[in-house]
Design brief:
alpha/beta, TIM Barrel, 8-stranded parallel barrel, about 15% strand, FMN-dependent luciferase-like monooxygenase, Luciferase-like_sf
């Protein structure tokens, strides 16, 4: 199992410079702790869940500040991008980072974002399929759109580094048939059952449909926030998770007016003492078939020091208890 963390690049107040610096610092800390992959989510409208509109610019900066951690998007909203131009950005960051890029794509869901970019949200699945085919061709060094044109710099092999975020069993089957790795979100929207109960059949459908000779990868994203006990963790994340659930209720994604406990359940949150979190993960239905555990704090926005401590606890106590070991860098001196 590989260990990752995902940030939506959020913060409190109006000092966005500090928000972005703090998010960059999390990549540095995660690199030192031995995390395998650092992921960012793209959102053009802040209420959509985050504040990062240009993930590849962000990851280029992160590449310069880190040495071994892989750098990925979960996800880039593909229908709102020019796939050829996106392929160029990906190849530049991959070249700068020494081949450390992972590319996660999806269709997004914000009608406002689609309108702002002049795209028809009703065609999001079609646009995603078309865009992914062109993106793959460009990254493979094929001529795209006109004879004689290939992207610069030439991309390395991305055959096993493209991921698709899905929200259904048919979507998972499609990702497998495309030869993409699978990204599963922290919550299954529109269902009353627990997220892992809903998503395990999607993962199984993906594995059943896989036909490539290489081993498929399944990235499992989960809200994980360790603290000395559940009360302390709840004080840090409870209100943020509740408010996010209420916003989701207004959009019809969650039932309206849910309480804090139900909000935490619907976001499938793992929080509290590390031993409690490990015990909960041992009952997690999707984890046994996942190759990548992607931890995140979103929709909670803990203060920066608490976020750093949480990453340290995940890397030193929780993930090792689940069978993970840091790939290379020793942990001595981290956090000093």
């Amino acid at each position: 199992m590989r260990l990752g963390f995902l940030t939506h690049v959020q913060g409190r107040g109006d000092d966005l410079t500090q928000v972005y610096r703090n998010a960059q610092e999390l990549f540095v800390v995660a690199d030192e702790l031995g995390f395998d992959v650092g992921w960012v989510a793209q959102h053009h409208v802040p209420p959509g869940g985050g504040g990062l509109s240009s993930p590849w610019t962000f990851l280029a900066h992160a590449a310069a500040r880190t040495s071994r951690i892989r750098l990925g998007t979960a996800i880039t909203v593909l229908p709102l991008e020019d796939p050829v131009r996106l392929a160029e950005d990906i190849s530049v960051v991959d070249t700068l980072s020494g081949g450390r890029v992972e590319v996660g794509v999806g269709s997004g869901a914000s009608e406002t974002e689609y309108a702002a970019f002049g795209r028809d949200v009703a065609r999001k699945r079609e646009l995603t399929t078309e865009g992914l085919a062109l993106l793959r061709s460009a990254l493979a060094g094929e001529e795209v759109r006109t004879p004689g044109f290939t992207i610069q710099p030439p991309a390395a092999d991305f055959t096993d580094r493209i991921w698709q975020g899905v929200f259904s069993a048919p979507g998972a089957e499609f990702a497998a048939k495309e030869g993409s790795n699978l990204l599963l979100n922290r919550a299954a929207y529109g269902y009353d059952e627990a997220t892992d109960v809903v998503q395990r059949p999607w993962a199984d459908a993906y594995l059943d449909a896989w036909r490539e000779p290489r081993t498929p990868r399944i990235g499992l994203s989960r809200l994980v926030f360790p603290a000395k006990d559940r009360r302390t963790a709840l004080a840090q994340i409870g209100e943020d998770v509740h408010q996010a659930a209420l916003r989701f209720g207004e959009r019809g994604t969650f039932p309206p007016g849910v309480g804090v406990a139900e909000a935490l359940r619907r976001f499938h949150a793992f929080y509290g003492h590390p031993e409690e979190i490990v015990a909960e993960f041992e009952r997690e239905r999707v984890l046994p078939v996942a190759t990548d555990l992607i931890t995140q704090f979103n929709p909670a926005i803990p203060d920066h020091d608490s976020a750093v401590r949480a990453l340290e606890t995940i890397a030193t106590e929780i993930a090792p208890a689940l069978g993970w070991r840091p790939a290379s860098r020793a942990l001595e001196g981290v956090g000093k």
